[in-house]
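Re: folding output
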Amino acid sequence: MGVVSATIPSATTAWIAALAGVGFIWRSLTHPQPIVDFSALKIRNFGLGSLFSFVSGISIFATIYLTPLFLAGALRGFSALQIGLAVFSTGLFPGLCDSSLHLSRPAHRSALAHDVWVLAASH
């Protein structure tokens, strides 16, 4: 048995997904018992938090998935090690900044030191 290849072009799939998304939102806003109740988005803090979470998710997807594909493609031709080093730097700084917020306690400092040691030993 062979592998079935996809015959639908990407643009067609994108249009179908966009129309389905618009239809889903329209139905959720007009139906008396919607699948997803969007009325919670009227609360300013919840709506902004949801928007920022969505944007953060897109940026994480682009960094973790699309950047290695771009770097490995014919355009750049990076090796797996070069791609790993490029993507590694995107997670190192935010991780250290988040950890530095909790460094006032000795237990947190020792945990951070352990994490940095494990990270250094893994390379």
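--- second protein (sequence, then structure) ---
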Amino acid sequence: MRGLEGRVALVTGAGGGIGRAICSRFVEEGITVVAADIDEGSLRSLSRNTGSAGRSAYPVRLDITDFTAVQNAVMDVVSRFGSIDILVNNAGWDVATPFVETTPDFWDKVIAIIIAFLASDDANFITGQTISVSGGLTMHG
């Protein structure tokens, strides 16, 4: 992952396992990381535990299903850092429930979280790469 020093990355779902690992690695590589998550506690922990040589992730509490909040966050990041070179679309949500017990509202929420940021006009602010992360949950029973 060499050659990315000085770039700016926005990582959604930054407080969880995959997002946290991505943030840590990006910070190690010298990337300015904007860590976005709806969970403020996990962002505080990430901020304390990520980084070396004086570098850390810049935490932003963000509900990516809130269009206005996404617009404001993107404008803030671009204003503060000049650009967003890398978007890691990592946010996701699920509940371990058998499929036949789910509702349309459940799936609306899952889909809204997964595609919310990419569906916004603010994705046009990305000057480089977009990376979408997908996880899976399988229930047997």
